[in-house]
Amino acid sequence: MPTCKILISAQLDNVTNLQTPGDDYQYSIKTKCNGCHEVSEKWQVVSGDEETDLPGSRGKANFVTKCKMCKKVNNLDVCLSTKKMYTADDTPGFSEIITFECRGLSVVDFRFGDGWKCIGVDSGVEFANLDLSQEWYEYDEEANCPVSISDLKYKIV
Ligand SMILES: [Zn+2]
């Protein structure tokens, strides 16, 4: 089964275990039709918690899309079992956070959105609902230190 993996890299200051919160997290991606190479114009939202019927079969997938150009119906699944955290030990390298199983399409773009969470390295305090569309700065009251996530990058393989 062809897969597309999302790898991220970030500078974590005094935080670790950066991750998307739950199985219902909505990943924001753009896909390309493998048949005609048309890339979706709009951001597409996919979640491992949602299922759509596949036309003409009894199967289901987390995301089904019809190519605007060639009209082919393609689909993908979010492999929740591959969901991983990005930890302080992973910095500053790239590490995989999620894999998509792709049928007829490829994931070509990814957007960090909001809803991410992490914990303070020393305090263990959870910081939730982080908006990673920009750099994030906060103060960890328990550990008495500034915390931040910056230099966010991603790679799709
Ligand atoms: Zn197409």
Describe the structure concisely for a colleague.
The chain has 157 residues and is an all-beta fold.
Can you characterise this structure?
The chain is mostly beta strands. The chain has one domain. It is built from no helices and 14 strands. It has strands at residues 3-13, 15-19, 26-33, 44-47, 52-53, 60-61, 63-66, 73-79, 95-103, 105-111, 116-120, 126-130, 136-140, 145-156. The strands form four sheets. It has a six-stranded antiparallel β-sheet, with no helix packed on it. It has a three-stranded antiparallel β-sheet with strand order 2-11-12, with no helix packed on it. Strand 13 (136-140) and strand 14 (145-156) form a beta hairpin. The radius of gyration is 17 Å and the shape is elongated. Zinc ion binds next to loops.
Provide the number of structural domains: 1
Distance between the termini: 14 Å
Bound molecules: zinc ion
Estimate the helix proportion, in percent: under 10%
The number of strands is 14
Low-confidence stretches: none
Described by strand count, sense and barrel closure, the largest sheet is: 6 strands, antiparallel
Question: What is the topological layout?
Answer:
Layout: E1 3-13, E2 15-19, E3 26-33, E4 44-47, E5 52-53, E6 60-61, E7 63-66, E8 73-79, E9 95-103, E10 105-111, E11 116-120, E12 126-130, E13 136-140, E14 145-156
Antiparallel strand pairs: 1-9, 1-14, 2-11, 3-4, 3-10, 5-6, 7-8, 8-9, 11-12, 13-14
This protein binds zinc ion.
Zinc ion (ZN) binds at residues 33, 35-36, 38, 67, 69-70, 72.
